[in-house]
User: What shape does this take?
Amino acid sequence: MKDGQAQECVDYIRFTMELEGAGLSDSDEKILSDILTDECSAAEAVASFIRDNGLDVSYESGYDEMENYPGTKCLVNYFNIKDKSRLRQIEHFLVNVRTAELFAHPLKGSLTFSFLREIHSTLFGDIYPSAGQLRQSEASKRKDFCRPEYIEKYAEDIFSKLSRDDYLRKVDDIDDFSNDLAFYMGEAEALHPFRDGNGRAIRFFFNRLVQDAGYVLNWRDADPDRMLEASIAAIDGDYQALVDVLEEIMEKRT
Assistant: This one.
């Protein structure tokens, strides 16, 4: 991967961290850059991180893996961590490493619901046994998301329509593309198929769709607060704010 392309990927990861209310350290950026340029592998980076941080790897399933540990706000994880702040820091690093890996070595296949599940499994599979599995409980975050018993049905509706639209690859007008993209992003956010990590998996999925369609999103220019509010509005079918944000950072790939 060329330096310019690697920087685009780092910009994407940095923006994702800003949406999470976190930052990207210089040392972490160096590790991500090394993965993007194949100077080290994601597996090596993960193994070093686990070793250097003395993480417990003696995981044994004894809880509902789709839920938090009793009395905590921590999803059941391979390292038996029950402190939310520590889990958050570890999750950020491991997910960022796997994000860089997915940029450097993209998954193959059509942009189906199964593909989205594979992205989620790859991003979160180092830490959560529930990675890639569909949510089984009600969920809300300022908005109510799709009820769990309807996730597969509505996913079939959304992704079948996306397939019929040829994954937006024939939409040459950038304004039309932004409108269509905002619609599908809003629908996927409302679906909210996973127990956690929906935003990061969905954003990566649609960033891939944008690239495959011949466009690019300049994440370094995006405002995380505006993006968050626009995404929330889109869940209720109000897409204009998201369209505006996307139009400001989108251009055709040269």
Q: What stands out?
A: Strands lie at 215-217, 250-252.
